[in-house]
Each structure stands twice: as structure tokens, then as C-alpha cells.
Amino acid sequence: MILALQIILVLAAVIMTVFVLLHKGKGGGLSSLFGGGVQSNLSGSTVVEKNLNRYTVLTALIWLVCIVALNLLQAYGN
């Protein structure tokens, strides 16, 4: 159980790093390479950017749950 949580934690950290790097910054960011640069003048952000935000938050929640679970297993496990 602990090994599985550790693996998920590392994968979530790597995926979250990639998602954060894909976000659009002041200069356009890496998300413009994958279609994030095509914007409508009427909307503030594209569907790609909104989905990227959702995936980033979901990955961060998974990362946080793994940290809490590992801490609880270490404190009260065995």
C-alpha cells in the first residue's frame, strides 16, 4: 500500500510539473505549441486552457491526498 502511494505521488508530481509548465504565461507559454494559442477575442481563455486548469487542480489534489495518506500510514500504520 505504501509503495503504491509513493509511486502515485511521484507520478502526480511529474505530471503536475508538466501541466504547470504548459500553462500560458505572459509570453504565451508552452501551451501555444499544442493549440492553446488560438483564442477567441470574446473569451478570456480557451477550452484548452480551462481543461488544463482542471487537470492541474485534479493532479494537485491527488498529490495532496497521497501525502496525507502516507503521513497517516506512517503515524498509525503497522
UniProtKB/TrEMBL annotation:
One of its GO terms (biological process) is intracellular protein transmembrane transport. GO terms for cellular component: plasma membrane. It is found in: Cell membrane. The gene is secG. This is Protein-export membrane protein SecG. It is a multi-pass membrane protein. The chain crosses the membrane at residues 55-73. GO terms for molecular function: protein-transporting ATPase activity. Belongs to the SecG family. Its main location: membrane.
